[in-house]
Amino acid sequence: MLTGMPILSLIVCTPLIGILVILFMPKDRGSWMRYGALTASLITLILSFILFISYQPERGGVREVKDWLELPWGKSTLQLQYHLGIDGLSLSLLVLTALISFVAVLASFVHIKKRWKAFYSLSLWLETGFLGLLLARDIGLFYLFMELTLVGLFLLIGIWGGERREQSAGSFLFHHGLGSVLLLSAFIMLLAGGSTGVHGSQPAVYSGSYDDLQSHTAGQDTWAAPMLGEPAEDVNPPSGMDEGMKRLIFGLFIAAFFIRLPIVPLHGWLLRLYQQAPPAIIMMVMGGMVQAGFYGILRFGLLLFPEQAADISIIFTVFGLLSLLYGALAALVQDDFRRVLAYASVSQTGIVLLGIAAMNQLGLMGALFTVISLGLISSLLILICGSIAERTGTVRIKDLGGLARLMPYTSGILTAAGLAAISMPGLSGFNGSLLVLLGMFDMMRGVSAVMVAGLLLGFAYMLRAILGITFGPARQPHAALNDARLVEAIPMIVLLAFIILLGLYPSLLTDMVGHSFSNLLSSLNTRIGG
Amino acid sequence: MPTIFSQYAWIVPLLPLMAFLFVTALGRPSDRTASLSGGVASVTALILSILILMEQLAGSNNEYSTSFTWFKTGSFSLTLGIEVTPLTSLILTVVSLIFFLVQLFSYSYMQNDDRAAVFHGYLSLLAFAMFGLVLSVNLLTLFVGWQLLGVAVMLLTGFWYDKEGVREAVKKIFIMSGIGDAALLLALMMLYWYMPEHTLDFSSIQNVFEGQSTSIALEITTLIAGLLLVGAAAKSGLFPFHIWLRHSAKGPLPAISLIHTVTLVPAGFILIIRTFNIVQAAPLILAVMAWAGAIAALIGAIAAMVQNNLIKLVVYSSASQLGLIFLAIGVHSLEGAVYQFIVHAFANTALFLVIGTLVQGGFGYRQSGQRSLASILVRCVVVISLISLSGLPPFPGFWSIKTILGSALDQQLPLFAAGLAAVMLTTMYSVRFFILLQRQQRGSKAESGANAASDSQSGSARLLQEVFYIEYFFERIAVCMKWLGSVIQKMDRFLFEGTVPRLIKKAARLGRKGWK
Fold it and tell me: What is the extent of the structural domain holding B508?
């Protein structure tokens, strides 16, 4: 089915084509643009599903390589490629991002009321960025896609945010600009350092290809990109970089991606985003940016620098626990439902980080599962929150109440989503938490006990918020509320369906990813010496 | 004899699940069909479980188990499955019988509620969770059922969500049962790593822990057993965690009845009896369990003595019975425990339903008020149940209590004395129940006033609730957590929304001025 078609490029380009079409639409036809954007994201989603179904883990992924540009850099040249590739890790996150983008476009039908052309163009732009960075196998390309998302999100927040949108966008730009600087410096050091081993007669070529870099940082005994077709002579002496350099680069990467995940001392932008941005944008962030952070930590942190990662796994653990408990405790006292959700997301990212810290198959799989279910669940929650806010005009828990009587359908879905967020079995959150717990238990017993306590706190804050909204006598001013309209109900049902599907049938994901994960892990283990 | 019906035991939990999904999909408007589907599911489940029980009792060695790999990563796999043994099929039959009866009862009880269909859906979810828990082949399956049970109980207790105090009640119950979940989860993880080959199924657990020469150190075993006990106690409302019991009387009566007789409260019992080998391997925990059971039996009985509210009286009576069950397990009397569970399930369900019939005015008894044949029959049921609970001869309670107390006497005299005292108190609150029932039924005219009065408890009852300041202790923890949360909130405001960003902005402005 896929032979001969550059499906990866198609996936990345479809939203761009959508942008072109939307730009040529007449300005006042809002519904045309809506359906245009919807079609573009739907096609992307379908393509990624096709890729998911036809992907055979044993045979490795698809690759699409083209030389992109060569820049002179001193005496030598900087060679960057247009190189897209896929493995189980990228693929599962790719499907998630495509799905959430599609649902977010649907959700925007209700909540976006001005400047449709710009909004839908930027949304698709953002989708391209998120999808592209998951597929990029060249650090130049990766960085390009990362910056696309930064620009897109900054404009989206700044234009369509709430009253204090400028501040929110500024905070976002501040954090992510810092992240980008760190990332860029890490990349440059990696490029430069990765090729210092070349002392041949011919001028050195600084290649941005991920596989090349990996062989540089990791030594020659590892999986030196069998499909790249490059002979082994390019592989340089075992360790192209000294230890301090590796530590530094690794530290920069981790800091840059911690901002995107976000981990506790760096979570300010997420709080403001939740407060100000419309639901569709928050959904795209939860379905794209958080995944990008997780993906970056794995792809550029753990896989390029496994020894360094193993050395500081205790730091991962500390930050993971910090985020988990900090987020949970803060969520316990918020008046504003949106802030509860923001802190709940922070708390969940703590679980993700703990899964990474476990550095074993159970933990990493759990982290991936948690990232995916975090994307689904927090999107669903913020979507419902948006619907409630639109009707009642408030998200203060104290002012809400009794919605179960007035909006039974929405309340039911809210309850289900809340249960998923506190990892009830049968819903996707449970599998991730369970795997992370089991993985963590192998490494550090005490930590997993603390993590269980953190999950228990989750019971408390989620229950407080949801019961506060749905239970109790109905408030007078809200007496004439309508339940969700069809256009709101469809995205809710789609998200909930995926939450239940992953909850009941986790093998769907684990079988797909398991193979590539065990590849990654065996390389990790051989290098850590575990 | 081949296992014909046991192979299809997996259908039993699926039936109520289908009913639940069907009802949920149909939504609120379809009252009759929705309720009917719940009924059909429970009848079928009952018939199937009776057939399975008969098959299990007919021949020896008919045990059957099946499981499938839920998911696996690398070399680790997690499986779910069911297991049919004489014990599980017996419990299953008791549970499904009571489910069927209560569902039948709730048809007319909930007749006038416009959300009756939703209620039946929730009942089916509860049944699904409980059947899964009873039949589970390994600890993971049990854990799934265990958590779903918490959800179903939350939904049922919060069914009348706009009533006052329901929100707080649901929150307390759910968090208490969450403590149970957390403890069981920790126990599960420890078992997963310490069991050879990472298996969690009960037969392997039995093999590993049965002999004295276990490969697992005693401290670890004690820790696992302790966690199991804490889990069971928190879920079931055993002694230090009994505080949620008094909040549980907020839901519809059929739901309260099911929660206290066959689902949430006995869930702890089922957990312990399935993992009994672990507990047995840790003598310390076994002793603690016996004492916790005895104390719970006494506290429950005393609390039942001083209640004015009939429902709460039976709730505490259930707690007391559960204490006896745990006492029985603690003194190695498993038969006594199972026997007592069955006696308690039937007798207390009968009492709950009678309250619904005579006092709350189901079936029009309250309006007529005269002594019809049916009303006399209902009274006979009450008397029989009460006598049986009190452990007096011709009824089954006598045999179960005799077994338990006999084993307790063999072990320790104080345990026997405590058990005996609890049984005597049971007799006393039984008499009180009967008197209260008469009085409240007669005073049906002033029902609305009396109801409010009976809800306010006597001073001694309030004193009891504060036993050892348990509730106070939990509230302190909650306050501490809230305080920490507000500190964090302030800090975040300071860092991200208040002073620090403003300072940065000011610095930037100064910098710009300097530039110019």
Answer: 469-516
